[in-house]
Amino acid sequence: MNIIWLGHSGFRIEIGAAIFLIDPWFSGNPMFPAERRAEAIKDVTHILLTHGHGDHMGDVAGIANEINVPVIAIYDLAGFLQARDGVQIVGFNKGGTVDLNGVKVTLVNACHSSTAGTDSGAAAVGSECGFMIAGEGHVLYVSGDTDIMADMDWMGDYHKPDIGILSAGGHFTMDMARAVYAAKRYFKFKTVIPCHYRTFPLLEQNADVLRDGLPGVQVIEPQVMVAITI
Fold first, then answer.
1. How many angstroms separate the CA atoms of 30 and 166, rounded?
2. DSSP for 200-213?
3. pTM of the full structure
């Protein structure tokens, strides 16, 4: 498995026979090198979308139509994108699991918000979510934008993820200290990768608190377009 950070909350996940883009945000993302866009989307099979905010969904429709791949998202958000942009979709809901080229992807809860801009202003486009991705003998938890929530208790016990990609920048999501609490109380991760940080001065700029707070866990600060191989 290769996990490649695209800056902010965007990732390219190469797992089994699937290549996923998760929340790819390129246009206006100060961390993503625009000249590497073609490399980031090469051979992608599916786009996974956690919620409708522009720093997650802004480039999704354009990429999906350009490379002719479906968007995997909560039913309401998927339908919104299909109606507005004509994208291929797989819409499902929390608790549902879809098989994507042999990789099992389950939609799970998150605690945030989810709106998209329209001509009439911001519109609700379903609720925010995360993903449990099972393949190659691993379960990867992508938290999406979230705070700590009690649902993490059963999610950790039921899905038993060994890898966590956790929003940890603060202000809009958990900060590093809250991510430490969530990881220690609810999960038994072997590897943790922070995201939704460093993008702007408002957010946390390093993962020192996360690393210091999780002894015995491999905490990896990702670098943009550098593969983490697991």
1. 20
2. STTS----HHHHHH
3. 0.97
